[in-house]
Amino acid sequence: MRMVRRGLLAWVSRVGVLLVLLCCAISVLYMLACTPKGDEERLGLPRANGPTGKEGYQAVLQEWEEQHRNYIGSLKRQIAQLKEELQERSEQLRHAQYHASEAAGLGPDPGLPEKPQADLLTFLRSQVDRAEVHAGVKLATEYAAVPFDSFTLQKVYQLETGLTRHPEEKPVRKDKRDELVEAVESALETLNSPAESGPNQRLYTAADFIEGIYRTERDKGTLYELTFKGDHKHEFRRLVLFRPFGPIMKVKKEKLSMANTLINIIVPLAQRVDKFRQFMQNFREMCIQQDGRVHLTVVYFGKEEMNEVKGILENTSKAANFRNFTFIPLSGEFSRGKGLDVGARFWKGSNVLLFFCDVDIYFTSEFLNTCRLNTQPGKKVFYPVLFSQYNPGLVYGRHDAVPPLEQQLVALTWTSKAGAERTCTFTASICTAI
């Protein structure tokens, strides 16, 4: 037993020695295989039949240098091509500005080429013809009409936000302000250009600008109608400009005289004597004393309080020496649509501008001129948008904090409450051709 155990131990020791020697041999071979090669072998190119040593290194450098030269040459060709395209676009822009200046009556610039770019000019004119500038278009519903936003030098009255925000934007957003200022400046350049003005004509400035309306048709461009003071009372100068996603172009310039344009204000009414008395105070101040070119038609429903309303009309007529009014009594329940229709059909005189009005409307004499300027018989109608409604009791809270009546009427606050007393102010507008 002892002999077998000794033989087994001797055999295990021999196997262990052999395994150790085998590991040592494998380690030596691995070290030899991983040892870096000499300098001459490292400089050689890893390709068949390639040069080795110093000559191979110089060949690699020459090849890289040639590739860099080719790449630099390609970049230079691309830069030259881009410069040519930029010069071509600049020429097109100069041609467009040249034709826009020529259309606006500013005369050609000697530094610009005389040969027109026929394709660009044709495109600009086609945009004007496609837009609703010279004539109206038929629409499926009234909701398809693109409204105009009105503006002055200080404010913009917009409709795009509805009544969710204050429609009067002041201060005006910079991009919109720059756009409108450019339109006003282009109009002033046209009015003051030697080709358009006479030798004795005064110089127009921004102070002569009264108001403007504009709207953008997204696939055509932006239309501007700008109104300036004229040389005499009740005279105005209006310019129609169009920006077809390019330079502003003059479409039309005209002189307007509103001295003989009469406005027939039609008011349907039932009871509400206090409101009518308040309305007549504003009517006397704005329409009789300041404007003087109006006719008032009151369509009254029912007999209750009718004598009081007639008395207010007669007293105003005597006090202000005003005879241009009509009182039409009707029986039955109040109907605003019927009252407006009867009042419009009752007129038997010459052509007149109809102003459909409510008894709780406050307006100014300037707004009457806005109505005259933005309407045209058989061609254009004007829809003022009333966006100021409020109940003074809800807005001001305490009775001792309520301002005078004149300031209440021109306040711009929105309160949505069923049955609340309302007062409306005209400022924003929809104007459309028919």
UniProtKB/TrEMBL annotation:
Alphabetical UniProt keywords: Coiled coil, Golgi apparatus, Membrane, Signal-anchor, Transferase, Transmembrane, Transmembrane helix
TM region(s), chain numbering: 12-33
Keyword Transcription: no
Coiled coil, from the record: 65-99
Subcellular location per the Swiss-Prot or TrEMBL entry: Golgi apparatus, Golgi stack membrane
Keyword Transport in record: no
SUPFAM superfamilies attached to this UniProt entry: Nucleotide-diphospho-sugar transferases
EC number: 2.4.1.-
Topology term for the membrane: Single-pass type II membrane protein
Record-linked InterPro entries: Chond_GalNAc, CS_glycosyltransferase, Nucleotide-diphossugar_trans
Pfam family, one: CHGN
Similarity section: Belongs to the chondroitin N-acetylgalactosaminyltransferase family.
Protein name: Hexosyltransferase
Lineage of origin: Eukaryota, Metazoa, Chordata, Craniata, Vertebrata
